[in-house]
Inverse folding.
């Protein structure tokens, strides 16, 4: 078995955590298929497991950790440029 | 099936330690001299620097001296301090444990006190050797968890591993305690969904809000550039990393230090003092929190670390779960479990969780954790102030 490059923390998650730096165009094996990265992603950062649309909740650990602010395709880097805290919006002034 | 030591109140301990407990810093040296030759014979040192009176410190000392892992206690007092040593001695006696107080001011001084203390400890060690063990079920175990020296790996390896183990032992009807409300800011509404009652859901949110206010007053920000560089995008994502230690089971109640769960289940320990900040940070270091988890009855503590903490604790074994594979290579002599190997891509969170659960059973059965073998017996107790638990925090 090839060494996994991603951790998916919960079956309902739509992002996974990259566990070794990957280049754009690399194939990432997940259970049920292969996703090609569409940007470089470094260790500890998140990759979209499916196409995510603006307004969609990002799920990690099986729970929403933020909301998508601009569309990102499967294999894309999900981070502060395309995700926003739901908590800061809802519970802080 | 485990084996344990039966105490008078029906609880069982996984160790039969003797404690030397000093009641003010002025008695620390004498207490340490008494304990030191016996430090590899199950004799641990705890104490309070004092001297001004503090209810929390009194209750912590009582809870720790009557912990089920403890078989005998020697109190070492200077003589004029404020800690209520009479009540401490009485509560240890009521718990059915051999107890003796040495008051230095009435014992002809330091040298005589040390000799008297060592003689008594030697006797207790001989007596405790003969105490028979009894069967103990996994459901009688109380397991606490903490993370310290965290890095980007903690929230994706060691903490989710601990969460899986919590789910598994809770399914076996054991009791589990998690804490660090300051690190739950951002996921309190997610946590509230796991509360066993609507009332408890509100109290969980209130508890995290209290931590948020406290840390704001102390001038503490929660989300840093370093977090973002490490790949974390939002405060709730960061908090989920710490929170994932608690697993996915329902949450049964909220505790404060020294309050012991009256039913089985999963509990959040609220370590943030009530009222305005009085004595500084809620906890100055990991060991102050470990002592509180133990004072709530934890038989052992699961410690997740990414950068590599080496501590253990007095009174209860600490099992260290290393989140980062590089840290593990560097500090393997201090680490019980290498959760970092998940990042090498050739094992899974589930497999390491099984390994950790086996390790817990092994150590509960009397085998030593790495920190116990190395005689790490750190202990910290500082001033704090708490109000009583609000109604609804404990089940039924």
């Amino acid at each position: 078995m090839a060494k996994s490059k991603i951790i998916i923390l919960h079956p309902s998650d739509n992002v996974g955590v990259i566990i070794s730096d990957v280049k754009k165009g690399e194939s990432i094996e997940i259970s049920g298929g292969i996703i090609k990265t569409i940007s470089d992603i470094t260790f500890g950062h998140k990759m979209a497991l499916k196409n995510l649309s603006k307004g969609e909740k990002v799920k990690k650990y099986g729970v929403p950790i933020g909301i998508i602010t601009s569309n990102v395709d499967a294999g894309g880097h999900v981070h502060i440029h395309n995700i926003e805290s739901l908590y800061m919006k809802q519970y802080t002034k | 099936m485990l084996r344990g030591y039966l105490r008078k109140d029906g609880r069982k301990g996984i160790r039969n330690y003797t404690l030397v407990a000093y009641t003010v810093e002025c008695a620390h040296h004498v207490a340490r001299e008494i304990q030191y030759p016996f430090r590899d014979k199950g004799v641990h040192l705890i104490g309070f620097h004092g001297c001004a009176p503090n209810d929390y410190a009194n209750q912590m000392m009582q809870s720790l001296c009557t912990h089920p892992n403890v078989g005998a206690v020697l109190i070492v007092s200077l003589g004029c301090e404020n800690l209520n040593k009479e009540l401490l001695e009485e509560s240890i006696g009521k718990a059915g444990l051999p107890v003796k107080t040495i008051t230095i001011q009435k014992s002809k001084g330091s040298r005589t006190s040390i000799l008297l203390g060592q003689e008594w400890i030697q006797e207790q060690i001989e007596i405790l050797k003969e105490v028979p063990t009894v069967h103990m079920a996994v459901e009688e175990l109380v397991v606490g968890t903490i993370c310290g020296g965290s890095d980007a790996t903690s929230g994706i390896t060691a903490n989710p591993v601990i969460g899986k183990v919590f789910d598994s032992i809770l399914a076996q009807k054991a009791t589990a305690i998690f804490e660090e409300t300051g690190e739950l800011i951002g996921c309190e509404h997610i946590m509230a969904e796991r509360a066993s009652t609507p009332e408890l859901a509100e109290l969980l949110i209130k508890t995290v809000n209290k931590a948020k206010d406290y840390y704001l007053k102390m001038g503490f920000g929660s989300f840093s550039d370093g977090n973002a560089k490490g790949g974390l995008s939002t405060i709730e994502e960061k908090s989920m990393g710490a929170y994932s230690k608690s697993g996915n089971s329902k949450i049964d109640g909220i505790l404060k230090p020294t309050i012991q769960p009256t039913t089985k289940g999963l509990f959040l320990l609220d370590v943030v003092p009530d009222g305005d900040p009085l004595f500084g940070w809620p906890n100055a270091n990991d060991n102050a929190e470990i002592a509180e988890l133990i004072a709530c009855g934890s038989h052992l503590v699961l410690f997740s670390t990414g950068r590599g903490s080496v501590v253990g604790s007095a009174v209860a074994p600490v099992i260290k779960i290393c989140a980062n594979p590089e840290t593990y290579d560097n500090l393997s002599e201090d680490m019980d479990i290498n959760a970092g190997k998940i990042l090498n891509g050739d094992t899974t969170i589930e497999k390491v969780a099984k390994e950790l659960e086996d390790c817990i059973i092994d150590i509960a059965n009397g085998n030593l954790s790495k920190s116990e073998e190395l005689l790490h017996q750190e202990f910290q107790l500082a001033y704090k102030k708490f109000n009583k638990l609000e109604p609804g925090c404990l089940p039924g």
About this structure: Chain A touches chain B at residues 1-5, 7, 9, 17-20, 42-46, 58, 60-66, 78-80, 83-88, 90-91 (CB under 8 Å).
